[in-house]
Structures are given as structure tokens and as C-alpha cells.
Amino acid sequence: MSTDLPFFRYHPDPLATGSLRAATETCVCCKRDRGWIYTATFYTARDVDGRFCPWCIADGSAADRFAGEFTDPYGLDGVGEDVLHEVTRRTPGFHAWQDPHWLVHCQDAAAFVGEVGYPELAAHPEALDQLRTDLRLDGWHDETRLELFLTSLGQGATAMLFRCTACGTHLAYADPS
Ligand SMILES: [Zn+2]
Ligand SMILES: [Zn+2]
Could you count the other beta carbons within 10 Å of the beta carbon of residue 28? Predict the structure, then answer.
């Protein structure tokens, strides 16, 4: 078993997020047991009778062969076609209640850090402020309810935390359970 996993610019620690894990399992794409398997989302109209190794994600062969995407392109506005392609077709998705999507900062896709609760989110005040602003725009007008929702994150609803690959700013969206 090798820990020499491919590097994913937009999902730098897929072991920590649980999207990849050690497994003795044959990849449905390359038909090899590489010691690691992908556990999260893949959207395709085809029947996929198994799971992928990280190498078939990284080189795009899984997305090509099964005509699918790991992540919905929803939210990836203002990024180049190459970035869109890399995030949706060559980057592991992640586990979420709702369909996972990516956030954008500095005209680039941000890197997915992981699913967090309020304490981890509060450690990045800029992400907490941005999420609060987004929720107000989404129609949360009762400030007491809004703060209760934010401070309860991690118990039911969670936040998906990202970090801008250009400026390092953290950003997040809420994933209602
Ligand atoms: Zn493979
Ligand atoms: Zn940025």
C-alpha cells in the first residue's frame, strides 16, 4: 500500500475529508487494486459497478470512461474552462447532505478543506462573516435565529470550509442536514 497519492489542487487532503480511504478493492476503471478507493459522489447516466482509485480520478480517465462528473458545476462561476474541468472531472468530490458544490475566490476555484462545525468555522472569522452575509442574502432576516443557526453548526447542519488557492482567505457554505 502506497501513500504516494496523487495531489489534488482543489481537494488537497481527501483522506482527512473521508473522500478517499484505504481499501483492498479493485478500481472499476483501471481494474487494479491500488490500496485506495474513492467513496464520495459521482454523477453519471451510466451504470458504474464499483468505485474508483484516486489515480483514475486524477488523470481524468474515470470521468471520461463513465461520462460523469464528481461535482456539480453549480457555483463555479467566473472560472476558466480548464479549472471547471479540473474540479468537476479530475478532483474527488465530498460527502454532504446536499449535492456538494465548490466555492470560488480570486477567479479561481477554492480548495475544499472539509466539513466543519461552529468552532472550526469561528477560527476563520472571515469565513464566518462571509457565511453570515450569504445567509442574510438567502433570506435569514431574524438575527437571533441566524446566530443560533451559526453557533449550532456541527449539530445537524454543518459548514463546508474552503480556502482560496490564491490569497488564502477561508470561505464556507452551510449544508443543512
Ligand atoms: Zn483506477
Ligand atoms: Zn482569494
Answer: 17
pLDDT in tens, 57-115: 999 999 999 999 999 998 898 999 999 999 999 999 999 988 888 999 999 999 999 99
Beta bridge partners of 20: 38
Ligand nearest to the CA of 52: 1
Instruction: Supply the pTM of this predicted model.
Output: 0.94
- Neighbour tally for 127: CB within 10 Å: 24
Query: Hey, what's the cell of 59?
Result: 488523470
Hey, what amino acid is at 173?
Answer: Y
Give the number of whichever ligand sits closest to the CA of residue 105: 2
Closest ligand to the CA of 126: 2
Closest CA to 126 of 163, 176, 175, 166: 163
